[in-house]
Amino acid sequence: MATFLVLIPPGGRPGDERARFVRDRFSWIAFLLPVLWLLWHRAWLAAALAFAVQALGLAAAGHPTLGLAGAGLCLATHSLVALEGPSMVVATLTRRGWTVDAVIAAGDRGTAEDIYDMETPAGEAETRERALLPASETSPRRHAPMLGLVGFKEGR
């Protein structure tokens, strides 16, 4: 089972056709090509930071005594982007005015969309309450941190 976060655009209502489903899981593409993956998802600052850290790791990997540390730094960068990349996408959309409408556990995206459509009948779209993540209730900041744990009280 995977967890999908359903985000609705600014001004949208629950059950909106433009809702975006973000699967919260390890991303192999982000692991293999972290900078390109971040650029594709328009996370410019994170891509620049990942590029700088990887350049530092590659420079250290060429040094005879720091080679293993440089390789470890590159591997850590790849792993962090692969694990936290979907959370970075959600944080970026939230800063742009999108809201998290639902959190759905499903086997695949099609099943998640079916569950979301069943939860939001056509007549009840106005009365449904918005889903709140634990971090949004406790943090005075506009968004949760993007590195490490993303502010969830209970973890993932």
TrEMBL record:
InterPro entries: DUF2628. This is DUF2628 domain-containing protein. The lineage of its organism: Bacteria, Pseudomonadati, Pseudomonadota, Alphaproteobacteria, Hyphomicrobiales.
